[in-house]
Design goal:
7-stranded mixed β-sheet; 4-stranded antiparallel β-sheet; 8 helices; 18 strands; elongated
Length: about 375
């Protein structure tokens, strides 16, 4: 078997057998929780101070507060309570421990953290007077931000509306903040999208453990220094049905076609060598038989002038011969093609490629198809075929 086909088979086997099972990270916890109802904590997150540093990725430190809540600190934005973590999609939902998430958004920033908002959008926060006419479904009051001196803090994702209100001196811009496109209090107000409680949805790209989590493995650092990660303890059924089907269609079928093509190539080479050997020995392609050995008579070949006297025919596009069954040269086993020259034997009127029959008759004085003797042979000698 040639090396490309062998490589394809080995590669397919390695995919379906799965990666080598490496040891898990025994010094690190799996699905630790600050409380029974809290989110499970595993790599890339870690409870700070509970286990060794390399149980979590830098920037993913969590804490358990005095109320057993899971806390995430986001740089200058401060501490947030973690409601849920999706390790496959790499999403995290956070909330304000003091139950006033909108007030935290006025100075919210993810600069210097590992996280970014999902479907990011800039929101404008305005401090508007009581005389401001707030357009419906565009600007909504920010809950739990107290009114003072007849002013109300509102939010809008539409820049041009904010600019109009500021230009009319009815509102003053407080902040413009990049936030997830689905703010819970804004969705509740406009009524277009389902609410998500008071949670804020963030995501992360690095490290990428989503595929490992989907396969049921354990993601963590490789042994040694650095930040290279690995996926260990992947179950044998880690590949989903759709993934296996894709591998079969993408690699299995081309590999099988390659094997069949290689086998056909070898068979054709063997057949071609057999035909050349038969011609050299002066035997017809049909002279081999499974019956017991018998004595045959092989005549010596004809001279060149006798062979040249046999009729020649140039085939047209229809490749039509007097005998409709004569469509294949029985010496080389190839079909006749237009513009080829064929030659016939007068005694039996059988046709063959001109080159094929000329070489045959130079060594034999019989028709390779019906074995009839041809006039003009110099002598006939008995020969025993084994």
């Amino acid at each position: 078997m040639d090396s490309p086909v062998l490589f394809s088979l080995l590669f397919l086997s390695s995919l379906f057998l799965g990666p080598a099972q490496s040891a898990a990270h025994p010094a690190c916890p799996v699905d630790y929780r600050c409380c029974p109802t809290g989110p499970p904590v595993r790599f890339p997150f870690q409870i700070r101070g509970l286990y060794r540093d390399r149980c979590g990725y830098p920037g993913f430190d969590l804490f358990c507060d005095s109320l057993n809540r899971t806390i995430l600190k986001l740089g200058s934005s401060g501490a947030f309570a973690v409601s849920s973590i999706d390790y496959v999609a790499q999403n995290i939902w956070i909330n304000d421990p003091d139950d006033c998430l909108p007030s935290r958004l006025l100075r919210f920033s993810l600069i210097g953290t590992r996280f970014e908002p999902v479907n990011p959008m800039y929101f404008n926060f305005l401090n508007c007077s009581a005389n401001a006419s707030i357009p419906p479904r565009q600007i909504v009051p920010v809950p739990c931000v107290g009114d003072g001196d007849g002013f109300t803090v509102v939010a809008t994702p539409f820049q041009f509306v904010a600019d109009i209100l500021v230009a009319d001196a009815l509102c003053g811009k407080v902040a413009q903040v990049l936030l997830p496109g689905r703010l819970p209090f804004y969705e509740y107000a406009v009524g277009d999208l389902p609410g998500l409680g008071d949670d804020l949805l963030l995501t992360w790209d690095n490290p990428n453990c989503g595929i490992c989590e989907e396969q049921g493995g354990i993601c963590g650092f490789q042994d040694g220094e650095g930040f290279r990660i690995e996926c260990s303890n992947v179950p044998d059924h880690g590949l989903s049905r759709s993934t296996k089907y894709g591998l079969i269609m993408g690699l299995g079928i081309p590999g099988l076609i390659g094997i069949i093509g290689f086998a056909c190539h070898i068979c054709n080479r063997i057949r071609a060598q057999g035909r050349r050997r038969n011609l050299d020995m002066g035997l017809s392609p049909f002279s081999f038989s499974s019956v017991a050995p018998q004595t045959v008579v092989v005549a010596r070949g004809l001279d060149r002038s006798t062979i040249e006297s046999f009729p020649k025919t140039l085939l047209g596009q229809s490749r039509r011969l007097p005998n409709p069954n004569d469509s294949t040269c029985t010496i080389c086993l190839s079909e006749y093609r237009p513009r080829e020259i064929v030659r016939s034997i007068p005694e039996c009127n059988h046709y063959f490629h001109s080159n094929c029959i000329e070489e045959w008759l130079s060594k034999n004085a019989t028709c390779p198809l019906c074995r009839i003797s041809i006039e003009g042979a110099s002598s006939v000698t008995p020969n025993t075929s084994n």
